Structure prediction request, 415 residues.
Amino acid sequence: MSCAYELAKKRYEALGIDTEKVINDLRDVNVAMHCWQGDDVKGFDNDGELSGGIQTTGNYPGRARTPDELMADIDKVLELDGGTHKLNLHACYAIFEDGEFCDRDAIEPKHFSKWVSFAKERGMGIDFNPTFFSHPKADGLTLASPDEEIRAFWVRHGQACLRISEYFANQTGMPCVMNIWIPDGFKDIPADRIGPRERFARSLDEILSIGYDKEKVYVTLESKVFGIGFESCTVGSAEFAMGYVLSRGIVPLMDNGHYHPTELVSDKISSMLLFSKKIALHVTRAVRWDSDHVIRLDDETREIAKEIVASGRINDIAIALDYFDASINRIAAWTIGLRNFRKAMLIAMLTPHADLKRLQDEGRMTELMLLQEEIKSYPWGDVWDEYCRRCGVPTGDELYGEIERYEREVLAARA
Ligand code: RNT
Ligand code: ZN
Prediction:
């Protein structure tokens, strides 16, 4: 134990906080690590462009091009971020063997068996996402399509993914969060808004109608305010998603890039927790739009973490990260975002929430502000370094060396 940590431990003790317990609790925070930061959301089942109104920018060398490369990169990131992780996969990451190919509506558990072995060997659970984009049939609307053939195709895709999600849960022994997000929307003012939304609701009902084990698979629905090329209307808006999840008893998923820039997900968490047994999050960083920048240790990330911890409902909240930066070393992007989210959780766990709440309830707002601000300069960084040492991952000053070596030894060979 470093003497910096010893001093920090004493400072926090005076606030009534046990840093030893916090270190253990932080290690148990299960963060779903999105596989798509490693390859710019390309996946393995198509050679086309990324579609759906989302975008990666940059062409930093070293993108993972094969399942083996992506798995190696995930392993590297796991060496750099201490704590518990789940693997978050998209359906387009199906692995086909020996020239086999099947379309999205026909994928089966066997196309993910390599991912299952990978996750099991590392003691990770798996979360899953049907992929309703980057596909010839996702040119226009998908689950909201007026073309029955196209709509039925995507319903079958959702159903196939539900079966695969159950397979993941059975294989890993851990529940699988299956998140539905569709890009459906309109660039310009639509004539009919209710029709597409009615079809989307019907499609979701049809997907869920095949039946699944609700103890093993948590189906979530992710809302969105707009996407590139879908500026005027998004079928799966916040109101649509809230109405649907609450009426059908599935789980809401809030991505903090999916709201108007002055709206904050940190303020929405508590409301959703009151009416939903579970909620799910995509933590990201939106710069001027849903840009999916790497998570920084900024105010909103810290506030989201604070709300998770202060709610006392952390076990009811499925935490996933969702960002993709192709302009810098992807391993670094992945790792920095993961570590920043975990740092935010650490800071939240090192906060005397009960004392702060008492000040609020007693109307002592001056003292509340003062204490909230004072806590910001408490020595959480020394606790973080100790946490990294105990997890066997690099501290901040060792991190770049590790990343640089991997770039030289592994990524550089990917010409
Ligand atoms: C898109 C959504 C969605 C995707 C992933 C790849 O706006 O945020 O979560 O980022 O499914
Ligand atoms: Zn998202």
Observations:
- Residues 10 and 139 are 59 Å apart (CA to CA).
